[in-house]
Amino acid sequence: MQRQTTITENSMIWCGAGISIAEILTGTYLAPLGFTKGIAVIIIGHIIGCFLLFLAGIIGGQQRLSSMNAAKISFGQNGSKFFALLNVLQLIGWTGIMIYDGALAANRVWHLNQALWVLLIGALIIGWLLVGVRHLYYLNLVTISTLLILSGLLCAAIFTHHSASSSTGTLSWAQGMELVIAMPLSWLPLISDYTSVAQRPVPTSGISAIFYGLTSCWMAFIGLGAALLTHDINIATIILRAGLGIAGLFIIIFSTITTTFMDAYSAGVSSKTIFSKWSGTMAAIGATILGTISALICPMDNFSNFLYLIGSVFIGSVFAPMIAIQITDYFILEVDYRQQNCQWTNLILWLIGFIIYRILLNYSFLLGSTVTTIIVIIAMTWGTCRVMKLVKAK
């Protein structure tokens, strides 16, 4: 029997997910909202996103199923493969952009060669994968503890050595909410890959969501404060102005590794839903190699555009209605369609959710288009089930 992970191990894994350049960059893009609104968007977006993350973790954790295998509960054996394929594609995209941004920032701190930084980060991620999620305790203990200390120094340097300034640019509340909520929701199709191998799935789901939420909020606060106080959204420049030097380089490289490792690992786990005979570790290494190659040859300079793209194409359109249906089926309706090949009613509801999200993008909502879509699809899934039961009763 394979070793199961503890709550402490999972809390460190999800701290590593939250301590990320991506989270800091997201915070910098909120600067046009100003400090007060920016903080409010960060907190509200993370509370909503992490609550959904918690629910998603319970589903796979209680059933001992990876995230994409848990999708079989709502969409059937083959229906889940469609979502697994899309998940693998988005995770390779995340792997590429994270390696690229990490290498770009590292090269600005220490001018070595961006391609060499790409290869170094890619190689270290592969090293993490070879160690394996069940055996990362001591490696993560040292890495995450150091990152927390150095992030604290970065935060102190930013907020004590610069004076406040007014915000510039334009960004609506709804756009800010979409940017923020894209971060926790991007982990929805991954969290069960970790809770399913945990000793205590439900508490682990809660602790994972809390630790990720707290560290992610902290990183976003740093990014927001840096953009408002230093007039800069370049993470390398912010680190250099903070006087961290080599310590800042450590933050860049190892925060990239601890986050991107999870993307690559879950790409491997999701690939096994499609090809059951594949080795998850080898598939994860393959995803890392593809991400590394894309970071070497593809221009990825505008992270905000990537966030909007990934949020629009995958998180809002694909995974938001998917998780809405799963939450309704598992917690409210208590149904299980794993014995079916495809659950066509839910697939049609998912397609409706996809269309609804694309339409809602043209309008401005207080909680953003993604959360609004989730609420609508939960109501539609519950309503459809009730109607079908009434029809059958007659």
List the helices and strands and how they pair.
Blueprint: H1 7-18, H2 21-28, H3 34-63, H4 67-70, H5 72-109, H6 114-131, H7 137-160, H8 173-185, H9 192-195, H10 201-230, H11 235-241, H12 246-274, H13 280-297, H14 303-333, H15 344-360, H16 368-393
Explain what the structure shows.
Its main location: membrane. Keywords: Membrane, Transmembrane, Transmembrane helix. Belongs to the purine-cytosine permease (2.A.39) family. Pfam families: Transp_cyt_pur. This protein is mainly α. It has a single domain (7-302), classed as Hydantoin permease (Orthogonal Bundle). It has 16 helices and no strands. The radius of gyration is 20 Å and the shape is globular. The termini are far apart.
Mean pLDDT: 87
Task: Identify low-pLDDT runs.
Answer: none
In helices, the fraction of residues equals: over 70%
CATH hierarchy class name: Mainly Alpha
> Cα distance, first to last residue?
49 Å
* DSSP strand count: 0
CATH superfamily annotation: Hydantoin permease
Number of helices: 16
* Domain module tally: 1
CATH architecture: Orthogonal Bundle
Helix/strand order, N-terminal first? HHHHHHHHHHHHHHHH
Please state the structural category.
Answer: mainly alpha
Shape: globular
Radius of gyration: 20 Å
CATH fold descriptor: Hydantoin permease
Beta percentage is under 5%
Q: Biggest sheet: strands, sense, closure?
A: none
Protein name: Hydrogenase expression protein
Pfam family, one: Transp_cyt_pur
Transmembrane segments: 12-32, 38-61, 82-100, 112-131, 138-159, 209-229, 235-257, 278-297, 309-332, 344-360, 366-385
Membrane topology: Multi-pass membrane protein
